[in-house]
Give the backbone structure.
Amino acid sequence: MKFSVRELVYIAIFGAIWGAVELTLGSYLHVIFPPLAETFLVGLILASIGVVVALVGRHFVRRTGAVFMIGIVTAVLKMISIGGVKAGPLVAILAESLLMELGLYIARKPRRWGFVLAGVLAIAWNFFHKFIMMYILFGKGVYEIYVSMVQQGATLLRIDAAYALVIIVVLFLIRIVAGGLSGWIAWDLGRVVRGRLAR
Amino acid sequence: MAAWRDSRPWPGTFRAIFSAYGYLFLFLGTAVAAIVAREAEVVFVLLAALILAGLSRSQTLRLLIRWQLWAFVLPTLALSPLLIGERNVHLWGLWFSQEGFWAGLWMVGRALSIALATAVFTRSISVSQMAQLFEGLRLKGLGFALGVATNVLPTIQETMETSYQAMRLRGGFRTRRLRTLKLLLVALIAGSLRRGDDIVSAAESRAFDPDRSPGPLISPTRADLALAAGCGILAAALLLL
């Protein structure tokens, strides 16, 4: 991966914008929604904005690897922030940027559907992220723990366990839609910013 | 042996032995060991993480007195006997699960080991050392990008706050919130890119070349490689035993 000075500066700027969103908005959202109570909404909002910023960045740095570099810059900024080191967000940022890169690689040239695919792949990660982090924290037997939690949750809510699976599918679909929407918005936003800079 | 250019003080013993690669291996090794360790084996991983944290950078042990950590640990310990497994122990008028108690305890052990390893890694190597590490991993120019990003981050945060307040005071977020959010992002990105052009001009006028490394490239020391091998053997032993 070889980048010019201008491209590197743009990578730094988009990484810093994503980092600023994570640090500023992330802190607000974690206060409004305590992490143990609500990870779905906070993760979805932060990931959607992050995806928009990184993909707009791809409008300005049209090279393979640019989005991954933006992700690394964001992860490092998050790592050195005052809030302290948390493995979860770091893994999420890096995985999202890698998946965006994969989506863009499949599309070959910057196209709207490529951006949508990149967004879908990145935000779909959020769903699996929870399972992977649970595996890391719970260790082996995560499936059994998950099934037992679903069963107990279903008993607690007095609904059939089968509906719990429906809820999970709906949550996954919400992420897919949010990802697609983020990619769509990023495509438009990139052109708007480019137009504004050309004025 | 790695020779750093920045003035960050290094702990005496470790400075002479390990380079940034050593800390990276230490972090990855602890994380992998914590993930593959079964039940009580986590205790050994946690003990190793505590000893290594104490030896390499004792300030990281302050992590153990942070309330955010206990806000995770205590609810996990309290809720897992109620949520996981069959409740088979009667105590203080409540039924608890023995399986859930142990699962919670091992979970906390894993989380603490990984948190300590991450803290040792990030507190022990500075941004410039991290940049050199990335340059060594063939990510050319990332060091420069990281330097620029660290410098522009406070300005971007300030611009974000100011733009948000300006839009909020004009009633921007009362209706059509998504449109206002898009406008906020456009203003933020366009403003930052304009500032970026000044940085590009400054770098180019100083004949900056991203292909030239900003400092001596780091190569792993023998101790780093020995540590990597040790971590690998430990992870393999945990998997096989």
Q: What stands out?
A: Chain A has seven helices and no strands. Residues 161-198 of chain A form the longest helix (38 residues). Residues 5-139+179-198 of chain A form one domain. Chain A touches chain B through 55 residues (CB under 8 Å).
